[in-house]
From TrEMBL:
Name of the protein in question: ABC transporter ATP-binding protein
InterPro entries cross-referenced by the UniProt entry: AAA+_ATPase (IPR003593), ABC_transporter-like_ATP-bd (IPR003439), ABC_transporter-like_CS (IPR017871), ABC_transpr_LolD-like (IPR015854), MacB-like_ATP-bd (IPR017911), P-loop_NTPase (IPR027417)
SUPFAM superfamilies: P-loop containing nucleoside triphosphate hydrolases
Lineage of the organism: Bacteria, Pseudomonadati, Pseudomonadota, Alphaproteobacteria, Acetobacterales
Similarity annotation: Belongs to the ABC transporter superfamily. Macrolide exporter (TC 3.A.1.122) family.
GO cellular component terms listed in the entry, alphabetical order: membrane protein complex; plasma membrane
């Protein structure tokens, strides 16, 4: 039996204004499906719409036309409150720059999204410690981000993205700010975590060496999402 579809883009269109009267089309009726347990790489030249696609898929932006379906829920016409809940409960984000909160420890950074979602503090703490231990950071729980290496900071960011047990993980150049050796180690840990949890993951990357580890590779061409 096929795994369920976690992310579906259905006829998605998105354009931006360029200058006074111009319009820059980015997505032109794009269709795409991502299933549970599947890791797909998104590889495309800069300026072709990778970040736009991830923002739309993550409900951080709305399409001009078409629909974004998350775990079977259509978001077309959905109120922002509903989009916020869906984003919080079903989607995890990892970015090139970790965006950790500098005044909070590693443990607290991973606890925070859980507590925002209403998880009791003790349970959020235990889950944060479990995730950070999984990424080899059990000895760094009480360190502020500024006291962590780049690889450690990104590991905390990945743990934070997984904290609310999302169905969908969206990663935008998750190792792009790391040296080659650290990037390889962090990405291996990310893949292991995603595989273990059976998540659907869409990973935008320029790192060609990572592609053989993915299930599929797609690109953007003339506003469509197509196999690379």
């Amino acid at each position: 039996m096929n795994n369920p579809t976690v992310l579906a883009l259905e006829g998605v269109q998105k354009a931006y204004r360029s200058g006074d009267d111009g319009v820059l089309p980015v997505l032109c009726g794009a269709d795409f499906e991502l299933r549970a347990g599947e890791i797909v790489a998104l590889v495309a030249p800069s300026g072709t719409g990778k970040s736009t696609l991830l923002h739309l898929a993550g409900l951080l932006d709305t399409p001009d036309a078409g629909d974004i379906v998350i775990a079977g829920k259509s978001t077309k016409g959905m109120a922002e409150a509903g989009r916020t809940v869906l984003r919080r409960d079903r989607i995890g984000f990892v970015y090139q720059f970790h965006h950790l909160l500098g005044e909070f420890t590693a443990r607290e950074n991973v606890m925070l999204p859980q507590m925002i979602a209403g998880v009791p503090k003790a349970r959020a703490r235990a889950e944060a410690e479990r995730l950070l231990d999984m990424f080899g950071l059990a000895h760094r729980l009480d360190h502020l981000p500024g006291k962590l290496s780049g690889g450690e900071q990104q590991r905390v960011a990945i743990a934070r993205a997984l904290a609310n047990n999302p169905a969908l993980l969206l990663a935008d150049e998750p190792t792009g700010n790391l040296d080659v050796h650290t990037a390889d180690a962090v990405f291996a840990e990310l893949l292991t975590a995603v595989r273990q949890k059976g998540l659907a993951a869409l990973v935008a990357t320029h790192n060609e060496e990572l592609l053989p580890r993915m299930d599929r590779v797609v690109t953007l061409r003339e506003g469509k999402i197509v196999p690379r």
